[in-house]
Amino acid sequence: MENLDPMGIHTGESVVVAPSQTLSDKEYHMLRTSAIKIVRALKVQGACNVQFGLDQKTGKYFIVEVNPRASRSSALASKATGYPIARVATKIALGYTLDEIENRVTGKSACFEPSLDYAVVKIPRWPFDKLYYENSIGTQMKSTGETMAIGRTFEEAFGKALRSLEMRVDWRQKTAEMAALSLEKALAPSEMRFNVIMKLLSDGTADVAGIAAVTGIHPWFVQKMENIAKAKKALSKNDMTLPEHAAEIIQARKMGFSERWICEATGRSASYVRSFSKANGIRPEFKMVDTCSAEFEAATPYYYSTFESSSDAIMQKTKRKKIVILGAGPIRIGQGIEFDYCTVHAVQALRQAGFETIVINNNPETVSTDFDISDRLYFEPLKLEDVLAVLATERDNLEGVIVQFGGQTSVNLVNGIAQNSGAKILGTSTDSVDVASNRKRFKALTESLGTPTVKSGMAFDAEEAVLIAKEVGYPVLMRPSYVLGGRAMHLAFNEQEMREKVHESIMASEGNPVIVDHFLEDAIEIDVDIVGDGKDYLIAGIMEQVEEVGVHSGDSAAVLPTQRLSKVALFKIEEYSLKLASALKIIGLCNIQMAVKENDVYIIEVNPRASRTVPFVSKAIGVPIAKVAALCQVGISLSKQGFAQFPKPKGLVAVKVPVFPFNRFPKADYAATSEMKSTGETMAFGRNFAEAYLKGVKAAGQLPTSGKVLVRECGKWSSQIEEKARKAGFEVVAVNGNASKISSVAGIGIVVDGMIGCPKTDRALCEKVIRAKIPIVNSYYGAMALFDSIAIVGGFAVLASKQMEIISLNDANAQIK
């Protein structure tokens, strides 16, 4: 694999291509021979990764590092080549030799090196849009995920990988801003660098030699990008009115052009481009990933699209009904591995029930894109045109499409699939999905059901939003439509803050309304996961967020069962949940978010799909609810599956705790917001909340490192937090005013700062705390929960010296009984 970015950019941050494109035959064999020498000298048995730095001007090369194990690139290499590295390495660990191991993709011996007759491109996905952080990249890895695309040429694979990224909503604006800078600044290593290169080449403001000289990217790659730019410029003269115009469209398609790119270049609508392509026989064909350049037949159906005249995807007639399941694309903040968990569970359940399963996804890191998880895998962008192409190929005996397990990515395709393919959307109806996602229709539903919501209004522009905010009363929460992970969701306490933040919320809604809610201060947020079959509806879990409303639920710890709610509030939560699920006729999974203030319960939103809490609830109650939901979507009712209700955790308490990436972003703002920032989570069980919570916090690396706590301004909660900290055995250092005056944070074991509604964080202090790797608590309720829990176990001194007992869940249940 060859990195497009030069040395100095972490390989996890670089665009990568396989096979290598710019190495001469001499260079290739020189590095191959060196790698084999290293592996033999180290007596490696299993997987090994060798990283080289090559100076192609002098022919000198350097060994950067050797990892005698499976590495981050092992998954990419396995998916790119169809050679299952981890599986083969495991067999070797069990004592088999390479010639004794079968490669399940080819059905032949694993004792051969893959040979590719296609190009693979990987592009990282970064979280800069969530963290509002400068988008520079370098020697430290910051990306949260990646996409992979396969094509017959570099241009085709590169174009497909770019549109698989699901880039930040303001990427065009950012690209234009950066392209206007000096060449050195515009092309500095960043998230947007390749977009900027494409724009500079399209505008003619920089040439191949100049870009290669500034970036260190090989001229061959820049030339390929110029080919794409030239092709787009040529298309601007093509009005797609004559049959002879089809040849140019086919050529553009072979260079990775999407339907949208063609629309932009020609000025035609998507429907016109689609009909012109159909009339002229322009459609993608599917090739098989076979690892051996078709030297012998591959045994596993694992496909990619290309615009060539022949197809390998000739489906054998089957009596089994087919189900297409859409994946979630690259891992990023707000849409993580939880959705892949759901996809894999759905595939397992459906295959066991006798269905033929087909997965579409583009993430090389996930289990759903393993070659043997589903019956067929399409490694494709999760865009409407790509999904429609797969559905057209798989149309015979197609039962339908499941979109619930791919996060907002797949849900956003519901209407397009229903209107353009004739394929049935399985599970909750497309109309119900729209009711839940469209803020106006959803508000009408809640009013008709009598399920309370906070005072709110809908806006399509900034001035309208400001007027609504005055009407509903500050503070207000701005929530865009059709987004996930709190994207561009903002809290404003006054008109000035409203005007500063509302434009991003409107942009993220992409023409749909932004809802402006009156914000409930000091309320508790609740997550409810429900499974339904269209007639019966069961609550799988009611989760109480530890942090207060306003902190995104993905950034809050959560506990199951609830700890602070009254019986009256719990009754209302169950009543409202079942009312909403029944009204929407939920088939499959559904997540409902609510806010509770004393005994009053308010509906925040309903998501008629899998949520990020599904794995947590499944493990807490011991039922794989994604499997149950998948079977409901193909007509197997809850009663047929043997569920009259789901079990509740008795005696044991389950807690999930978020994990944040601040150590990679030292200049980030760690303040709590309504937009998600966490990149993962831990889960723990305990015989009470304190035990489970502290275990979860410890696993997340967030336990205090010393007995001194720094408490910055916490408004009306300051005295209560300080008192609880002292009761937990901490020495309290309270800071008000200018925190920049703190010259050192040495000796501080935990920082309480960044609460919602408090003065803005001091960025100088943020950086000091993050660089010192000091745990941070940025919510009132979170701080009090932590100090109360530490006090319950005997205080910080006891916690610091005590090893937590590890017992099995069965033993814990027995002790409780």
Q: CA-to-CA gap between the ends?
A: 57 Å
Question: What is the 3D shape?
Answer: globular
> How many beta-strand runs?
29
Strand content: 15-25%
The pLDDT mean sits at 90
Task: Give the uncertain stretches in residue-range form.
Answer: none
Number of helices: 30
Calculate Rg over CA atoms: 27 Å
Largest sheet: 7 strands, antiparallel
What percent of residues adopt helix (DSSP H or I)? 25-40%
Helix/strand-derived category reads alpha+beta
- Spatial strand order of the main sheet: 23-22-19-20-21-24-25
Explain what this protein looks like in three dimensions.
With 817 residues, the chain is an alpha+beta fold. It contains 30 helices and 29 strands. The chain has a seven-stranded antiparallel β-sheet with strand order 23-22-19-20-21-24-25, with helices on both faces. A six-stranded mixed β-sheet has the order 9-10-13-12-11-14, sandwiched between helices. Helix 26 links the parallel strand 26 (708-711) and strand 27 (731-734). The longest helix has 17 residues, at 25-41. The termini are far apart.
